[in-house]
C-alpha cells in the first residue's frame, strides 16, 4: 500500500474534474431525454451504474505501467479478434441482429458490444507496433517507414474487416481514424504521408461523387447497400427525405436550432426525437441549453483533448505518447462525428457521444481508454520520483 | 539510441501539436456550425416548431323541425344531456385509455356494442406480458430477423387469445373498453358522443365537476327527435340514423362528398330522407389552430352554424288524427263484429284537389301480436301498396270513352247481361240489373255503377260490336290505349308526391284483349290509394292532374318556440298535365259523381244523404282472389285462396267548388255480399263530415279572435278617452 500523501500527487485531478463534468452533463441530458417516454427504463440510474463500473476499470488499469500494458497489448488484441469472430458464429439467441447489425452479445443481465473495447485494444497494439518498429529500425528510411505503414495497416485491417461485416460503418470509421492519428504521430515521413492522405481524400471525394451521380455503378461493383447511400442523400438534402431517412436529421436540426442562444431550459423541450438518450443526446443538450450549453460541451471535449495532448507532450515514455495520440484520435472522431451529424455537418452514422450518450459498452470502452491516461500520471510520476531523483 | 530518441523528440511534439491543431480546427468547425444553426437560423427553427396547423372542424347542429299546416309542431328536437370526447391530434393510446378508465368510474356505459375483436385488442393492451407469451421464442426470433412483420405477429396474438383469456376481462374492464371504443371512433378534434342516452343528472354533474382531470371529455347537450303525435304519421315522417349508426352504408360516399362526417345523423326514410338537404342545417365550422403536437392554440368560428330549416307540412294534424280515429273505430268495429276475417287495413287520403296539398294521409293496419290486437300506423301504405279498386275508376272509363270518341256525353247504351262465346255460359252484368235490358245514359251508368255501360264503352274503344253469344272481337290495342288515358288521371303512373319509394301499382299480367272489359270496371290493374286521390282530384278540379305534395313551405328556423321563421321556399301547386277531355265532358262525369251521392238511386246516397256540403263521388267494389299477408297460410295449408272484396270510395266536396278530395280504400273487406258494402262509405262520410266540421270550428275561432281583438281595441280606446278626459 502506498501512503495517501504519496498517492495524491500521482492522481490526475484535472482529468477527474473533466470526467466529473462529463458525468454530470450525461446524467442531466439522459434524464431529460427519457422524459419522451420512448422506453420505460430509468437510464440515468443505469448510466450511473456504468460510470461506477468504469471507475472500477480505471482503478484496475492504473496498476499497470507502460511495460505491462505493452506486454498485454497483443493478448488483448487477440482476445478482441476472438470476440469478434465469436460474434459471427454465435446463434441469434446470444447475438441478435439489432437494427440490422450483428454487433452485440446479449446474455442474461449483460449486453456487450465488443467493438467498443477493441478500439482501445487497437490503440495499445498499434502503439506497441510503433515502439517495436522504432527500436528495430533506429534509422528511419522511406523503406522502413513504408514497412511500418504496412504493419500498422495490417494490424488495423483484421478488426476493421470483422466490424465492417457486422455491418457497423461507424466503428469501422473509428478504427480508421485511430490508425490515421497514430500514423500521423508515428514519425513516418511526409514524403509518404502527403501522397497517402491526399489520395485518401481524393478517394473519399471520388466515392461521394459516385454516390451522388453514379450510384448504380457503386452498387454493382462494390456491393454497397442502398441504405448507406440514403444517409448521404438525406444528409445533403434532409427535407426531401424528411419522412424517411432524413427524419432524424430534420428533427435534430429543429431541436438544436430552436434552442437558439440560451436554450429552452431543463425539461422544456418541444421536439420529439426518438433514441435521443443515445446517439442523439446532443440534440437534447442543444435544445435545452442552447448555443451556450452546446458550446460548453464541445469545449469540454476540447479540454479533454488538450489535457491529453499536454500529457503526451510531457511524458518521457514514447509508448504513452502514441497511446495518447490514439485516444485523442478516437475521442475526437467520436465527438466530431456525433455532434457533426446532429447539426447536419456529417452524414448520420450510429456513433454515440463519448461519456455523454447512454450505453454501457460505449462508456466502459471510453473509460478504459481514459484509464490509460490515468495510468500514465499514476505510473510516470512514480518513475520520475524513483529514477530521476 | 540516444540519437534516435533526440530525433524522435524533434518530430513527436511537432506532430502532436499539429494533431492538436487539427482537433482545434475540427472543434472550431463544430462551434461555428452550432452558431449558424442556433444563433443565425435559430429563430427560423423556432418558428418552424410554432408553425401552427389549421384544422377545420364541423360541429353538428340540430335538424329542422316539422310543423303541420296549422303550425302545430309535429317533429321537434329535445335537448338531452350528453358526454362527448374530443380526441386531440396525435393523442396516444395510453392517454385515451387512462381517460377512459377514469370516466368509466364516473358513468355507466352499456357494453353491448363491444365486439369480440374489441375485447381481444383490449386484452392485448391490458396484458402486454401475457400477450408476448402467446408468441414462441422461435417466432420472436423470426420477427427480429424481419421474417414476420409486426402486423402478422399481432394477428397471431389475436388468433391465440382464448375464451378463457377474454373471461379475465372484468365488467369494469368491459365498461372501460366500451368507452375507449367511442373515444377512438371519432375524428380527431371533432366531439364524439360517448353517451347521450339516459345520462343521469348525477352522472352529468359528476363528470362536469371532474372535467379538469378528464382531458378531451366534455359535457354538452345533444338533441333527439321527439314526435308530438307519437306514432301518428310516423311512417311517413321517416327516421333518422343515430350517431352510432352514422351515415347509411349504401350512401356513405354520397354524403361524404357533401360535407357530412361519418357519424352524422341523417334522414333514413320518407320526409326525413326526402328533405334531408333542408332539414340538415349548416354545420358550425370552427378553425382550430394547433401546434405540431396537436394542442389547440386558438379556435375561430369560420361559419356560424344554423339549425336546419323547418318544414311546414300540408297535413292538417287535427284532421289527420280525426281520420285516423275514424279508421280505428270502423276497423275495430268491423273486426269485433266478425265476418271480416281478412280485413286488416283501411286507407284514407285527403287532398286539396286544386293544389295537390295532402291534408291527411291516414292508414291503419290491424295486427295481432302475441294475442294482442294492435292498430299500427300504416299511412305509408297510401303510396306504397296497391289494390284492385273496382268501380271507382269508372269516371276515368267514361272520360276515356269521350276522349277517344267512342261515346259522347249523354249517349245512351243498353245495359244487359253480356254473354260471349266461349265464356262457358257466364255472363257479365251490372249489380242493379242482373237480367233485363235497359237503355241508360252515361250519368245514370255512373250513378248506379253500370258495369255493362263501361264494358260496352271499352268495346267501342276497341272497335268491337256486341253480339249475344258471339265472339268478342276487340282490338288488342284497347288495353294499352285505355291505360294511356288512365295515366292522364294518375292511375298506374307516378303521382309525383314528394316522398321516396312511391309504388305505381301492378298491371294485370294476362294479355287477352277481352280483359280490357275488366280493366274498364277497375278489376284488372291495381292502384294505390294516393293514385285514386289524384284521379278524383283531376275530375273534381275540371281536368288538371295536380302533383300531390306533403310539404307546403320551407321556413327559416328561429329561436322562438312554436313560431315560424320567414319563408325560404313555398311549394307551389304544380299541374302535371291536363286531361284531353273538354270541360263539358268533365262536367258530365262530375254530374254522374254527384248523382252517386245525392240522387235517390245513387250507390252511395244512403250514406251521404243530407250531407250539407254537396258531395260527389264514386263507390267501388272489386272482387278478387285474396292477395293479402295471410295468403301464404292458405297455400301452406293446401286450402283454396278465398275470393275477397275490396271496397273503395272516391269523392270530393262541394260538388260545384271542390275544396277537398279523398279516397277510401278498404282491401279484403268482405268475402260475401259485397253489394251491401258499407264500411268504405261510412269511413268516407265520417271523414268528409270531420273535414267540414273542423272548417266550421276554425271559422268560428277566427271570428271570436277578431271579436276579442275588437273588444280590446274598444277598451283601449275607452281607456284613452278616460285619460284625455282626466287631463
UniProtKB/TrEMBL annotation, chain A:
Cellular compartments annotated: Membrane
Pfam families (UniProt xref): FTSW_RODA_SPOVE
InterPro entries in alphabetical order: Cell_cycle_FtsW-rel_CS (IPR018365), FtsW/RodA (IPR001182)
Keyword Membrane: yes
Membrane topology according to the record: Multi-pass membrane protein
Annotated TM spans: 12-31, 43-62, 74-94, 117-134, 146-163, 169-185, 192-212, 289-307, 319-336, 356-379
Alphabetized UniProt keyword annotations: Cell cycle, Cell division, Cell shape, Membrane, Transmembrane, Transmembrane helix
Claim: Hydrolase is one of the keywords in the record: no
Listed PROSITE patterns: FTSW_RODA_SPOVE, PROKAR_LIPOPROTEIN
Main location: membrane
Gene Ontology terms: biological process: cell division
Protein name in the entry: Cell division protein FtsW
Native source organism of the sequence: Bacillus badius
Automatic annotation (TrEMBL), chain B:
GO biological process: one example: cell division
Primary localization class, coarse: membrane
Location of the region described as Disordered in the Swiss-Prot/TrEMBL record: 699-727
Membrane-protein topology: Single-pass membrane protein
Reactions catalysed according to its record: Preferential cleavage: (Ac)2-L-Lys-D-Ala-|-D-Ala. Also transpeptidation of peptidyl-alanyl moieties that are N-acyl substituents of D-alanine
Keywords, comma-separated and alphabetical: Cell cycle, Cell division, Cell membrane, Cell shape, Cell wall biogenesis/degradation, Membrane, Peptidoglycan synthesis, Transmembrane, Transmembrane helix
A Pfam family it matches: PBP_dimer
Enzyme Commission identifier(s): 3.4.16.4
Domain Penicillin-binding protein transpeptidase residues, every copy: 347-678
Subcellular location: Cell membrane; Membrane
Leading EC class: hydrolase
The UniProt record lists the keyword Cell membrane: yes
Record domain Penicillin-binding protein dimerisation: where: 60-299
Official protein name in the record: serine-type D-Ala-D-Ala carboxypeptidase
Species in which this protein is naturally found: Bacillus badius
